[in-house]
Amino acid sequence: MCGIVGIVGNRPVAPLMVDALKRLEYRGYDSAGVATLDEGVLGRRRAEGKLVNLQSRLDENPLAGTIGIGHTRWATHGVPNETNAHPHFSNDVALVHNGIIENFRELREELIEDGYEFTSQTDTEVVAHLVSRELNSGKSPPEAAFAAIKRLEGAFALAILFKNEDNLIVAARNGPPLAIGHGEGEMYLGSDAIALAPFTNVITYLEDGDWATIHRDDMQIFNENGARVERAKQLSVGSTLMVDKGNHRHFMSKEIFEQPEVIGHTLSHFLDFSEQRVSGLDKAPFDFKELDRINITACGTAYYAGLVSKYWFEKLARLPVDIDVASEFRYREAPMKKDGLSLFITQSGETADTLAGLRYCKQQGQHIGAIVNVKESTIARESDVVFQTLAGPEIGVASTKAFTCQLSTLACLAVGAARQRGTIDATREAQLVRELSEAPRYASQALKLWDEIAVIARDLQNVDHVLYLGRDTNFPLAMEGALKLKEISYIHAEGYAAGELKHGPIALIDETMPVVVIAPYDSIFEKTVSNMQEVAARGGKIILITDQKGANAAGMDDAKVIILPEMPAIITPIIYALPVQMLAYHTAVHMGTDVDQPRNLAKSVTVE
Ligand code: M6R
After folding, report:
1. According to the model, what pLDDT value does residue 242 have?
2. Predicted local distance difference test score (pLDDT) of residue 217
3. Are residues 132 and 202 located together in one domain of the fold?
4. Is any ligand 1 atom within 6 A of the Cβ of residue 347?
5. Is residue 608 part of a domain?
6. For a FRET experiment, which of 3, 424, 490, 524 has its CA 20 to 30 Å from that of 48?
7. What is the position in ligand 1's atom list of the atom closest to the CA of 603?
8. Does 299 participate in catalysis according to the annotation?
């Protein structure tokens, strides 16, 4: 992952780069650094931990210079400490890198034989030494960078600064995104356009294999063969405002509370309330009627949203869905029928595995649809059709509003698919549209459980393991609930299909094990009651999320019960996600973890 920036400017750039890096902290936050060139001399400041530490370093010991590169890190090779923090230096070269150099071991051996000394455990340092070696052989800085890049295997976005070259940054992209920003007598480089938003909204995106020489007044882009290429300038709509927490203690709580609004916003994008139908599908370059199955690929929370939609597409539209986590799909060599539809679900639109899956499907002649939150992301740009979730910027690493907006979008697509395929008629479509339009109201009601769930969460802070159970669309929700708890509270949790309990996990149940059961009162509720009884009989502590009918029918006197209003089945996975999120949030707050930036994680996973 990691975020990179570069500025060829006409004012001191170190503070500007720190500002830009703050916007990239979602890509990693375990160390950070900047390097500048001041009167031809390279200088750098680096610090372990979050950007505030780098800021303090710079306050104590400022860095002058009007050209520089910067980095915020999510460690892949080498522990997160100052020595492994970027920029890495090699003689006349300073370099920052996002990605993984897969052949770094052999390059490292080769460079050691040539007398290069390594000071870090990173894969990145080989690139700095490679460029340095090429410079020493008499090549110009751009030639040296190009020669080094050609030796690299793996994924990389690079920015390179050279001693005595006060009007040049070389950038290169193979995989992770890189945006060049055009200013007035200044040029910028960033992992995304949002990082550059305070400086410019005129952006050129590098394509895979591109590398560029960036100067104050212009830039040149070259392809992997070294030939000049033109890449269009685009106007970015990235906001210049840093998103703030408002009155909330954490971004995560703010984002949980934004859900009624953003779910409504997203639904109104895909539903025509006056006509009571799904809108916009007619513009898609495919017709669900022509398809005999669809393929869905995503990671993490987005994958669980896809799993929920499998139930919707199959039940409502009678359309079989193949769904995979992207890290498996990309190497599975799945046979695909030409002109099929592959959907990719992603908040960031930059997840490396999801992007790789997309490119595989493209090669297989698939139509590519993206359910994506960041409109200018690589996945959005590489898709044939974008169904944008309108969650707005999601800053908390734990996905909340992006998830419910993904579900909202997918529900609309499933209803639209059903209508196109004739498996529902206009009357049923209108009913489903009305039911979906109720989601924001139910979401507001769910948020009223905030304080009550905070009390229930107190007990969870002292446990080591939690089991989540659900059936049907609540099964993926159980997995999402477990993921949420794991990532922000560090408590081990697993989500299971309730019916699977007796096939293994029941062995874990004893009086120390809380079991969260997600079960609105529905046609299979009684099946889940049997599972709860199996848990209760073995001393397990049940937290049941249900409605009043469910609470009455369950008759679990010892259970803690979180009661939601009764609601239409189509919106239950959307609304039941909220108590699940709140339970994880409050547990983490009670435990005092870093809710918005939990350890070892990054918001956007741009490496394999
Ligand atoms: O940006 P994406 O939606 O592609 O990200 C996928 C996952 O990395 C993401 O959903 C992750 O699982 C969340 N941190 C979970 O809260």
Report:
1. 59
2. 96
3. yes
4. yes
5. no
6. 490
7. 14
8. no
Based on the fold, state whether residues 258 and 238 are members of the same structural domain.
Answer: no
Element (H or E) spanning 542, and its range?
Answer: strand 541-547
Verify whether ligand 1 is closer than 6 Å to residue 377 (CB atom). no
> Could you confirm whether 2 is annotated as catalytic?
yes
Structure tokens of 195?
């990082």
Give me ligand 1 centre to Cα 598, in Å: 13
Residue 252 beta carbon below 6 angstroms from any ligand 1 atom: no
Cβ–ligand 1 contact at 299 (below 6 Å): yes
Q: Residues 302, 214: one domain?
A: no
Over the chain (608 residues), the average pLDDT of each successive run of 10 is 93 97 88 96 96 96 97 89 96 95 95 96 96 97 98 95 98 93 97 91 94 97 97 79 79 96 95 92 89 97 98 98 96 92 96 96 96 90 95 93 98 98 98 97 97 96 96 98 98 96 92 96 94 93 97 92 98 98 98 94 82
Judge if 172 and 149 occupy the same domain: yes
- Tell me the three state secondary structure of residue 414: helix
Residue 299 CA: which ligand 1 atom is closest?
6
Using the CB atoms, write b or e for 340-369: b if 16+ within 10 Å: bbbbbbbbbbbbbbbbbbbebbeebebbbb
Please check whether residue 222 lies inside any domain of the structure: yes
596 in a domain, yes or no? Answer: no
Taking the model in full, what pTM does it have?
0.85
- Angle, CA of 144, 8 and 60, to the nearest 5°: 105
